[in-house]
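Recall the central idea of this unit: under ordinary conditions, the amino acid sequence of a chain determines the structure it adopts. In this exercise we apply that idea directly, starting from the sequence alone.
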Amino acid sequence: MRACIQQRFHQLPHTRFSFLHPPRIHAYTVANVENPSAPSREDYAYANVFLWNTMIRKQAENGDITRDPPLLYYIQGLRTGLRPNGQTFMYLLKALVCGKNVNEGEEVHASVVRTGFASSEFVSGALLGFYVANGFIGQARQVFDEMPQPGLVLWTLMIRAYVCLTLPGEALELFRTMRRVGVMPDMVAVATVVSASGLLGDLGVAKTIHCFIEKSGVEVDAFVSSTLINTYGECGSLTDAYRFFQETAMKNTVVWNTMIHQSLEHNNLDLGKQLFDSMPERDVASWNSMIRGFANVGQYEEALALFHDMEISVFRPNTLTLLSTLSACASHGALEAGAWIHSYVNNNDLNRDGSLDSSLIDMYSKCGDIAKAIQIFEESPRRDLFTWTSIICGLAMHGHGKKALCYFSEMNESQVSPDEVTMVGVLSACAHAGLIEQGRRYFQSMEKVFGLVPKIEHYGCMVDLLGRMGCLKEAYDLIMGMPMEANEIIWGSFLSACRVYNNVELGEVAARRLLELDPRDPWGRVMLSNIYAEEAKYDRSMGLRKEIKEKGLKKSPGCSSIEVNGSVHGFLVEDNSHPCYNEINSMLEKIEKLMN
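Accordingly, the structure predicted from this sequence is:
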């Protein structure tokens, strides 16, 4: 690396570093002798160091360190006789962090030691930050340990480094050492330690840190308050989080949002909605949390209603709002509402960079309009992993297996590597199109070509494909050779295939495994009963039917839905809970009379 820098230096125009040349400094000294009022040699040297530092700082700000490496400027400055100061090293290390140049950073570290700046807390902090940014926590700790008397800033930086690298035990141990040597934490240090206890997930440790804060007299600001609420939630205690929220006097919008977020994370929508309604002042994050919370637990209609409330409020939905809302539309099958949101996005120019395209493709696919999904993909300026995956999975869902595989080939040609979700779509496309050879090839290529370890979803797709094509023995062998236990979905898919091809022997195996996984689900018994009936084994078939009746087992009722004026109405078998039940029945009777 250094050789490359030297070569690059000799290729640069000589005038680029002309302001650093010693002859100019000498000229300034002569001028000073002749004219005592002229700037001194020290003044010019200081000015040169300032310009030197400025050039290095600009490299860090511009982020383009491949054309002109920052270390090149540093080396040339040393050659012209300039002496670096603390700012030189801080700017240089910041520039090197941007480029992840570890070897060059180690050279700068050696230069810091040689020039005596290793005892500077600010320079040591920059060195520590450089090593942490590159994942070298051992070197960062060495920098810290070599400081004779690290101040609070350096203690906090080191503790935070452990937190950032998900090492909460080391962070808490260092905090204990810090207290033993008599260093008192401030609000930033306290918030960092609280975060560490949250990562540890130990409620007892979280309460101990909270107790220390109260006894030490450290000022608790809104940041510390929100961190404590978040930590209690991460430790599994919504009760303690809410108790602290009620007690603390520091309740800004961030603290309210944190409490709402934890309520929703613990699936306590009632508390979340109560807090949201009680907020003295909301922001976009407040709305986003509530919309996402309702969507995550399947209450899509409530999520869409909140979006409409937000749309008529003073707050403008952002990308996160739209992602959550489109997800709700997709899961709820609300095509009309999803199309309205798409129109809203276009009218307000909220998708200029194409970041919403994958969600729009997913929404239209799941709501049944695959043609619109294809149109959005073809017009999208953003052909990344997510848009490719969305269209491939959407086409597979609609049974367009061959078209999905064509897109997958284009994706590979575009040098975009698939992930696990993409491969689920590809294998599902093969299953729907009956492409057994392609399915086998793609399944084998996951690990060999793409470096992806097949998960249970991929095995499920292959079992589905083999079962559809009647390769029941191969499907069974695949199940038995899986590195993980097969779940109800895989055994259910295999049992369905046994039902189609009337394979009693393997059907009995599948049904038995399903009963072991969920003894209260009658579906396996019903399927096996049908297999027996097809094979004229009526005694066994009736025996299973009798067992279902005696045990009081019931299948989950079927559900259908319809979207009317942007609202999705669901109907279960023998369900009379719909508010318009009587009107619907009355209309059905009128239609029946007209048909007769």
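Residues 1-46 have pLDDT under 50 and may be disordered.
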